[in-house]
């Protein structure tokens, strides 16, 4: 019965991760509500195993992005070929622009990792981030109504836009702000359509999330033992499947509904956390 419950917990947390990692609603906020308040995975094994598990299931979400954007990644690397074996002309979005977008958050994350871990990982700071992110998203939608869209697709993004989106991604180092929420908002403010900003966000997420997750995984490898493998595997598969579903749905939805509905939802999550914890 205990093993069955562990698998159920893993699947539920995988669903939460898969559904929220790439939507601008903060997977951290949802993990606090679902895991810390209801499931308490840290009590099934120990807090170290629970934290390592949350890293492993992120890799399931990353794999979903790689599969959905496979052709795009092959083009970026210059590896996509036609049926005759000739290299296909790549899109205008380049690997250089991805690097430009990644650098600001990578540098700040490296410099302030200890401060972020010690000062910003708390329920109160996550609530503030949920609300602040919602405000940014509302502002982005308001500003876009008054601006001309200069990049309808991800292939039309300029180096300048990529850099400024990278600066907005730095805000996501604040747990609860949401990487997709900050970068999509930044892209919209810089003249991208919501779909172009979302595409660029998902493509950038793969190297930065994969790097951070693998580094954390290596640091905590000792906690992945035989008795926790079913727990980890169930969560990974669950996160992968539901990330596939949620990303497809979100990309179809974002240009129609914009960011405000997600902002309202974030505020509701913040209110729930406040009512329960405070």
Give the secondary structure arrangement, pairings included.
Blueprint: H1 2-20, H2 27-39, H3 47-68, H4 70-76, H5 95-111, H6 113-120, H7 123-144, H8 159-170, H9 179-189, H10 194-219, H11 229-257, H12 260-277
**Number of E-type strands:** 0
Kindly report the average pLDDT value.
89
What structural category characterises the helix and strand content?
mainly alpha
* N-to-C span: 34 Å
Sketch the major β-sheet: none
Poorly predicted sequence stretches spanning 5 or more consecutive residues = none
SSE pattern: HHHHHHHHHHHH
Global Rg: 19 Å
Helix content percent band: over 70%
Q: Beta-strand percentage?
A: under 5%
Number of continuous helical runs: 12
Shape: globular
Give an account of the 3D structure.
Helices cover 73% and strands 0% of the residues. With 278 residues, the protein is mostly helical. It contains twelve helices and no strands. The longest helix is centred in the C-terminal third of the chain and has 29 residues, at 229-257. The mean pLDDT is 89. The protein starts with a helix and ends with a helix. Helix 1 (2-20) packs across helix 3, helix 1 runs parallel beside helix 11 and helix 3 (47-68) packs across helix 10 (194-219).
């Amino acid at each position: 019965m205990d093993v069955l419950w562990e698998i159920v917990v893993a699947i539920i947390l995988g669903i939460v991760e898969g559904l929220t990692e790439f939507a601008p609603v903060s997977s951290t906020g949802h993990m606090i509500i679902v895991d810390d308040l209801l499931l308490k995975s840290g009590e099934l094994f120990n807090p170290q195993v629970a934290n390592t598990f949350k890293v492993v299931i992120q890799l399931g979400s990353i794999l979903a992005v790689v599969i959905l954007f496979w052709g795009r990644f092959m083009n970026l690397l210059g590896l996509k070929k036609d049926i005759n074996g000739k290299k296909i002309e790549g899109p205008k979005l380049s690997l250089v622009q991805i690097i430009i977008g990644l650098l600001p958050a990578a540098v700040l994350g490296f410099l302030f990792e200890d401060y972020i871990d010690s000062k910003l990982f708390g329920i109160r700071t996550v609530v503030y981030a949920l609300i602040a992110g919602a405000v940014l998203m509302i502002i982005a939608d308001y500003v876009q109504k008054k601006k001309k869209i200069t990049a309808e697709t991800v292939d039309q993004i300029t180096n300048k836009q990529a850099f400024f989106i990278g600066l907005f991604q730095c805000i996501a180092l604040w747990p609860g702000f949401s990487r997709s929420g900050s970068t999509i908002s930044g892209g919209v403010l810089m003249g991208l359509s919501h779909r172009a900003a979302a595409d660029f966000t998902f493509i950038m997420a793969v190297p930065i999330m994969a790097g951070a997750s693998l580094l954390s995984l290596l640091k905590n490898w000792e906690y992945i033992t035989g008795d926790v493998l079913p727990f980890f595997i169930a969560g990974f598969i669950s996160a992968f499947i539901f990330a596939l579903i949620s990303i497809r749905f979100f990309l179809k939805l974002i240009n129609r509904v914009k960011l405000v509905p997600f902002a309202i939802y974030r505020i509701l999550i913040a209110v729930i956390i406040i009512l329960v914890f405070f």
